[in-house]
Please model this.
Amino acid sequence: MTTTAPAIRVTSIEKSYDDLHVLRGVDFEVAPGSIFALLGSNGAGKTTIVKILSTLLGSDSGAATVNGYDVTTEPLQVRESISLTGQFAAVDEILTGRENLVLVAKLRHLPNPRQVADELLERFNLTDAGARRVATYSGGMRRRLDIAMSLIGQPKVLFLDEPTTGLDPEARIDVWHVIADLAKSGTTVLLTTQYLDEAEQLADRIAILHEGRIIANGTLAELKALLPPAKVEYVEKQPTLEEIFLALVGKNEASQNTEVQS
Ligand SMILES: Nc1ncnc2c1ncn2[C@@H]1O[C@H](COP(=O)(O)OP(=O)(O)OP(=O)(O)O)[C@@H](O)[C@H]1O
Ligand SMILES: [Mg+2]
Model:
């Protein structure tokens, strides 16, 4: 690869809803094959940025390209090279998981939709649940199915708007593994999150959106360097609540069985 063109480039984007000036000049770039996390409080404008980049919403001014295509003048090319998993799962409740996948594969005109569906069910640990209606799925299963659906057709850039909101710690970690694997295989991922640990664990770069602008953008180490070093204190390392939860709940059925027998 000789090209280092960014997979996503956002320049001076502004957006208002009536007199609410949400984006006031947003700039950032995302390198191909990297994971970029957009952090911000409720209402900061994260979903608005995702909608503009996925051509669902027009900006008032500024420019953005995705895979080299301009979101305003080349929306079809942008749509062909991206996939979006929205903040609220877009799966069809009445259909089974497998039927949802087959449907999307057919919509994307793939030659072998059933095979595509079965491979994705396998990859996302949903093979056993594949024949069940989505209405019976847990939140984590829906999220995994939602992400699986967004991978059909192998998009180069994936937008994930709060991929793990509402999931329990185990399901979140499952989704993190999926996202990390995607980036390893060359997919560029832009995700929004309100979980700082999610950004810490996953992202190559982290940007903070605040009052309409990106107020910080860097690697975790770069962001840490923005703060003065913490005073060193000698205290026992306490496990985090997440570590305790995972230890007690167990990551697999085997540990549940031991618990029953003891
Ligand atoms: N269609 C709309 N019409 C009017 N206001 C809107 C519209 N969509 C979003 N807003 C407002 O714009 C602001 C930014 O919304 P946005 O959904 O982009 O925030 P967000 O960072 O994704 O928030 P959250 O973390 O809650 O998902 C909010 O104040 C929201 O109320
Ligand atoms: Mg949002």
Observations:
- The two ends are 56 Å apart (CA to CA).
- Residues 46-47, 87, 161 surround magnesium ion (ligand 2) (CB under 6 Å).
- DSSP finds ten helices and ten strands in the chain.
